[in-house]
Amino acid sequence: MAEKIIVVAESITVGELAQTLNLPVTNLIGELFKNGIVSTINQRIDFETATIIVEELGLDVELEKKAAATISERKVHELSDKAVTRPPIVAVMGHVDHGKTSLLDAILKQKVADGEAGGITQHISAYQTVRNGRSITLLDTPGHEAFAALRQHGATLTDVVIIVVAADDGVKPQTIEAIRFAKSANAKIVVAINKMDKEAANAQLVKTQLATEHGLNPEEWGGDTVMVEVSAKTGAGIEKLLDMVLLVADLEDLKADIDTPAEGLVIESHMETGRGSVVGLLVEQGMLRPGHFLVAGTAYGKVRTLLDFAGNTLKEAGPSTPVTITGFKELPQFGDTFTTYKNEKEARSAVSIARIENEKNAASTNVTGADLLKMMNQQHESQDLNIIVKADVQGSLTSVVDSLRLIDTDGEIALRVIGSGVGNISENDVRLAADASTIIYGFNVVLPPAVKQLAARDKVQIRLYKVIYELLDDARASMEAMLAPEVVETEIGKLTIKGIFRTLKDTVIAGGEVTSGKVSKGLIARVFHGDEQIAEAEVTSVQRQQQEAKEVYEGDMCGLSLKTSKKLLLEEGDKLEFFTRELLKRTLK
Ligand code: GDP
Predict the structure, then answer these.
(1) What is the Å distance from ligand 1's center to 232 Cα?
(2) 3-state DSSP call for residue 186?
(3) What is the pLDDT of residue 213?
(4) How close is the Cα of 24 to the center of ligand 1, in Å?
(5) Are residues 101 and 112 in contact, defined by beta-carbon separation less than 8 angstroms?
(6) How much distance in Å is there from the Cα of 246 to the middle of ligand 1?
(7) Given ligand 1 and candidates 102, 139, 145, 228, which is best to mutate, with the most ligand atoms within 8 Å of its CB?
(8) Which residues does residue 419 pair with via DSSP β-bridges, in sequence order?
(9) How many domains does the chain have?
(10) Centroid of ligand 1 to alpha carbon of 23 (angstroms)
(11) Does the CA dihedral 95-99-100-101 come out positive or negative?
(12) Could you tell me if the CB of 348 is within 6 A of ligand 1?
């Protein structure tokens, strides 16, 4: 065990490392040089390199990589005794078409996702409803794939998950996904068995499926999972569902402090003409008010307008409140936490610290187009699908990119997102793609005519989508197209040669007995002499009693024409195995 443990970032400059280690920087540069790395004081080296160098220098020091801050590791606040009860944050999830959106509509008594392509949302939308004087915050999580990508961002947010299962369709893959999420996020589950108005509705079946296959036992059967039968269409059961959500939430004793600087999560961000940055936030603690200085990641600003989810102006927003604000100077990233500061000076200094941290962490991934090209050429052998993604808003972009990265290819083909950004597809994107034989995916963005022309000239593929699933399907199909086909051989029959009639340069005519299965024209034959395979041939005709036959079965004698690639000296007693050979297009799991 080393005497001293020093925590360093993912990457560090040579100068910084020297300082940390209390060594003359020339020592370090020299050691790096010995290892084949020509460096300067400002050169960044990654953690692994730093570790090797420290080891080689024989210092009694151990480097430890500073964990990148992830959302799930967000600090948990100690509650003061002044903490107040806060509304539960409830995510509505379930299989596509099981009625998530309709249920939200019914709960909020208003349309929530009108005009959303395919009815699928691509970022977290948040709403609030009031039941018996108590607020409930509802998160509309995107479709399941996008959702999986969002899991890390949404996980710590969610107190309760309403899992919507259509009573006429039962448990489906995304239902299971949702259950898994809820469990991993440590959220309570309330099942809404929806579409009870339908004739084919079978709540019992849904309950049985959930109980027997997924460990969710309905309360009425002595278990502890609340299941409510509802119809988003008629509104039946909705109030009971909300009561149950509140009941389940009460058991959690959800609290937050309000006498503390406001903090929370960025759940949406985009630019709007006339308004500038429009950012969706979910306040987790404290009271957010207009005029507060905010920092999220490396973006900062001052709350100019504070609106609730429905667009009404708010004077303040407390814990669990979803709000939309304007006033950020640049767009914060979806999933960033935000913090408020007393004044602009503090906010700015927090931003500069965040920038430095960010640069340090990003350095290792900060490659230029030229680097990329080089990497691509080097990796020409490996099968890569390179993708550039452009999307309308940051939330969508994160969803698309994260979902793309989730496509599993068994490591056979790598999908590499070599560029991504918010905004329309640009000539720059096309140039980068042209260099790297890349597909550009545009999500909810426009393709300007000039860019289209350039793409056509450079034969760059651009694909525009409005529905995330379709985009993902396309990417998957593109990857599948790159997979080598699978060769499938099916054995059809066997035959033993009884006589050879003619042997030509590339054809043998012989007779034999079918010993198993059958033989027919077009099959491939493996020819065995003893145990040894001596040739492969194609059956070009089959005859039975001097007549051309379609098929001859086990137990019958037949004549055969075999086409070979070179002269085949067949002998009596040789065995033939017949089979079909197909090239199957492979699909990804
Ligand atoms: P989502 O993909 O889970 O958001 O599902 P939607 O809310 O878009 O609903 C999918 C379809 O099911 C739509 O055609 C809805 O009108 C229909 N639907 C949703 N809830 C109900 C319900 O309670 N009863 C009936 N009959 N249809 C419903």
Answers:
(1) 7
(2) coil
(3) 86
(4) 68
(5) yes
(6) 24
(7) 102
(8) 388
(9) 5
(10) 66
(11) positive
(12) no
Tokens of 397: 């972009």
Q: Which residue carries 């590339």 as its tokens?
A: 506
For residue 149, the model assigns a pLDDT of 44
At residue 379, the pLDDT reads 40
- Do 555 and 506 share a structural domain? yes
Q: Which domain holds residue 553?
A: 486-584
Q: Best mutation site among 92, 96, 97 for ligand 1, i.e. most ligand atoms within 8 A of its Cβ? A: 97
Are the C-beta atoms of residues 194 and 232 closer than 8 Å to each other? yes
> Is ligand 1 within 6 A of the CB of residue 118?
no
Domain end: 450, 482, 514, which one? 482
Nearest to 189 by CA among 252, 262, 123, 116: 252
Question: Is the CB of 101 within 6 Å of ligand 1?
Answer: yes
pTM tops 0.85: no
Q: Whose CA is nearest to atom 6 of ligand 1?
A: 99
Asked if 276 and 408 sit in the same domain, the reply is: no
Residue 98 Cβ contacting ligand 1 at under 6 Å? yes
143 lines ligand 1 (CB under 6 A): no
Distance CA 107, CA 101 (A): 10
In a domain, 333, yes or no: yes
Residue 419 φ then ψ, to 5°: -165, 150
Give the amino acid at 290. Answer: P
Are residues 415 and 407 in contact, defined by beta-carbon separation less than 8 angstroms?
Answer: yes
Give the residue, by CA position, lying nearest to ligand 1 atom 19.
99
Gap between the Cα atoms of 333 and 311, Å rounded? 22
* Distances 274 to 17, 125, 281, 428, 479 between C-alpha atoms, Å: 46, 22, 20, 26, 41
128 lines ligand 1 (CB under 6 A): no
pLDDT for the residue numbered 446: 87
Assigned domain for 80 exists: no
Give a yes or no: residue 589 inside a domain. no
Cα–ligand 1 centroid distance for 105 (angstroms): 10
Query: Is there an atom of ligand 1 within 6 Å of 493 CB?
Result: no
CB atoms within 10 A of CB 549: 18
Residue 373 DSSP symbol:
H
Would you state the pLDDT for residue 208? Answer: 95
Tell which residue, 505, 504, 507, 519, has the closest CA to residue 576.
Answer: 519
Q: Which residues of the chain have pLDDT under 70?
A: 1-4, 9-10, 36, 38, 65-77, 110-123, 141-156, 356-383, 408-411, 435-437, 484-485, 588-589
Q: What confidence score (pLDDT) does residue 302 get?
A: 93
